[in-house]
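User: what does the whole thing look like in 3D?
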Amino acid sequence: MTVAPLAAPSRSLVRRGGSGVDFAGGGLTLLTGFAAFLIVAMVAVIVGNIVWFGWRTVTWEFLVGSPREGMTAGGIFPAIFGTVALVVLMIVALIPIGVGAAIYLHEYARPESWFTRAVRFAVNNLAGVPSIVFGLFGLGFFIQFVGRAIDHNLGLDVVWGQPALMWAALTLALLNLPVVIVTTEEAFRTVPRDMREASLALGASRWQTVRYVLLPQAMPGILTGAILSVSRGAGEVAPILFTGAAYFLPYLPTSPTDQFMELGYHVFVMATQSPDVDATRPILYGTVLVLLLITFMLNLTAILLRARLRARLAGRG
Amino acid sequence: MSGPLRTGIRRLQRLREGAIGVVLRLCAFGAVAGLLLIMVFVFREALPVLADPEIMREANLGKYVETPLWQPVGDVPKYGILPLLVGTAKVVMVAMLFAVPFGVLAAIFASEFASPRLRELLKPAIEILAGIPSVVLGFFALIVMASWVQGVTGSTIRLNALNAGIALGLGVLPTLFTVCEDALRAVPRSYREGSLALGATRWQTAWNVTLPAAAAGVTAGILLGLARAVGETMIVLMASGNAAIVSGSVFDSVRTLSASIAAELAEVVVGSAHYSTLFFLGALLFTVTFIINVAAGAMTSRLRRQLSGA
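Assistant: Here's the predicted 3D structure for the full assembly of 627 residues, as structure tokens:
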């Protein structure tokens, strides 16, 4: 009874101050809104342009055909196939290590130990390493060091010591390791403490608690991380420039030591190295649209999953 | 009978638990090992530039600074990195001049002024922008935007630092916006309510109370955007024209450190002076971005301390 009359006038005072008194402030407020509006407009222009000039090209024949006549005709199936093969290999290497690391950080590690801090420091800074440096690393480590050592020890000619699907996938896996660790840890944070304690109180061991109680609960979060890393893996070109992507291949890759075509790289090649830019343009736009649709749908799925997870976190209070 | 059996099972289980702990710890160590391996192997391939006498004769640090020419292919290759440094600085400057005002103002709008419905429009737009692969932004800047920029500025050179800089600015905008907005939203409500109750307007509150309180986080956002701009490759490779010239004008073509690596490494003989020099550029990029990222990390933890201490 005594609170309500006090609260009402104070709210109206604030509102009057915000719109009427301070003209300069009002103008600047509008400016922030204008900046936000321009960002939305720019995104709409970019996406709109690509959809407008690309959608006619994207037909079934385009998706299942091979490039013909110097990439001025035909489809992009080898690039789609290569991209899928690349991200599948990447995920296989990435998920166990990323999820394992996140479980360690959230369930096992003592938060203040030097090892934990070193891991967190590495995760944060790994996320900031430029993608082209990952490409250099892939060439210097996986191909020149590991690949050559394998060839040398098996007495092979050059099989592993050259750009290949496998090395590109591993390079991308390292690039995406922070993404998976961070999202998985976030997922573990949403699992209520009580569940952990109940499980331990019932006599379950720490690993049993993780395996049968926490992991199922954290699944949407792990999935989010996996999807985000696939989306990023499908779009990153710089790390695969020297680790396995090929201009054009007349055959599909059948082994991890083969080179491969990839959508993002295909866009780069067609946009910068086409002998006939005008003839390539429809195919180029179509390829960009396909790449954009794939990453967009993956991101949308991840965003929706994460929103559900965050809602659970907020609802826990 | 059951006593020894039970202790045996328990011991076995403890062994299993221990083994799993070790495996998980190894996974976590993977991140540390990854970062260390990147450092070791990029610097290892760059080392001949500083240590191998033969390569030092062809390309050495002295020459890097003396010759203002980057002509790595030819009868007398010249490895002057000055044009690349100038080019990188120019493009990054344009990108930041574009992205910082947009990113920070939009973050203020989203956290301080926007109605929930407007925010629901802005956030997905930023998420979409963040999801656009850099090769697609590079494609757009090369095929579409370059002509628009040329039309507006009347520049004679179509692919130039301005065009690449704007596209790069778009590329780093989501990082910058997201970190800044998180920092602003982390400022406790009581700060704003106190200011409003004292009669300050909403803009005065945002500018004089919320923004200073979140300053460390906003700085972190700007630094993270800067690090990404310095290291970003595909956008500048496609949109900048890639001419290695020393000039102060944003209407000239530029070649950046990252674009040089991307454009040249595939055709280089492993172990040659050119190969080592490109790895040296990579080591340079790694070092610069690493320092900026560490600084950003320090800023983020400072923000957290400030807000939790208050």
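In plain terms: Chain A touches chain B through 92 residues (CB under 8 Å). The CA atoms of residues 65 and 178 of chain A lie 36 Å apart.
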